[in-house]
Design a protein that fits this description.
Number of helices: 9
Strand order of the largest sheet: 3-2-1-7-18
Radius of gyration: 22 Å
Number of strands: 24
Strand content: 25-35%
Structural class: alpha/beta
Largest sheet: 5 strands, parallel
Distance between the termini: 36 Å
Oligomer: single chain
Helix content: 10-25%
Amino acid sequence: MKPIVIIGTGLAGYTVAREFRKLAPDVPLLLVSADAADFYSKPMLSNAFAQGKSVASLANASAEQMALQLHAEILAHTQIIAIDSSNKCVRLGDRELPYEKLVLALGADPIRLSLQGDAVDHILSVNDLYDYAKFRSALEGKRHVAILGAGLIGCEFANDLANGGYKVSVIDIATHPLGRLVPEAVGEKLRGALGNLGIHWHFGVSASTVDKTMDGLRIGFDDGSHVVADVVLSAVGLRPRTQLAMTAGLNVNRGIVTDRQLATSDTNIYALGDCAEIDGLVLPYVMPLMHGARALAKTLAGAATPISYPAMPVVVKTPACPLVISPPAVNSVGAWDIQVEGEGIHALFKADDGALLGFALAGTASAEKQRLTKQLPPVLP
């Protein structure tokens, strides 16, 4: 019997493997990973530093331990060269691995800004355990970190590093933190709370150069101003890994295009997690991944199961300002209704008929998450 083959051992790959194994305990299962295949929670990387978390403490299980748990074969440090869909196998250089069904849980890569300067290759990003180890090493003996991007990850790292005793500067072209996700009032509350930790903001500018100086790394902005820091961290977003799928002839748009059963344009190949585009949605968050893994496991086990997404608010890991967001769907028609009550801000995005389409809850208002989530429409019915 040919195995189910899963490419990728991040949260997506391991979760679908776990869910599948509950349903099909005896079907051969093979996971292939380009890295060490340790099991860890990637979302923890953006708030692990102040807690003193090492790479070893973040890894909950080794590849060998996961292989025993899953009754599966795991190939670590193994690069897939190509997918041969006509012969239902993947190629590893001079070796081929046959599959019955193939799951692409490839994840996403950090977006790289087009910057000039002799220190561009010193810009770091944190997207996996290896990156985290490299970042921790770069911070040793340093005191000032510049973060490119004031989105979710940028703000979480800023809060974490400030709590860890670092001077932090954050640069973003927007006018306030989380500028693409929350209204200005909520962004300003987060800005103030993180500012109280000593975080410096540079809004309305974009980085254009990064150069070495005697004092550190000089980040030049498009308005002629600059900031000098010891370490530069890029947190401007992720781009789904699609190259392997594209060269295999699968349909690719922003992500690997799938139907509601997570099948790609080849019905024997599925995509899940940060690399996948489902009904036009690319959702690089934990909850969509978990819903997708459960549905896909059932499909792989023989019970075709379309995916559906309920409302899935995101808890932002900024303890200086508790924050829960559920942005309205793209092209939603409506307006923000903002109410400030003491230390909390309720920002509710409502349709013309008053229906709740999204929210951003800051400070004490974050306690309303559960009640308001029940009023939201599903992300994918």
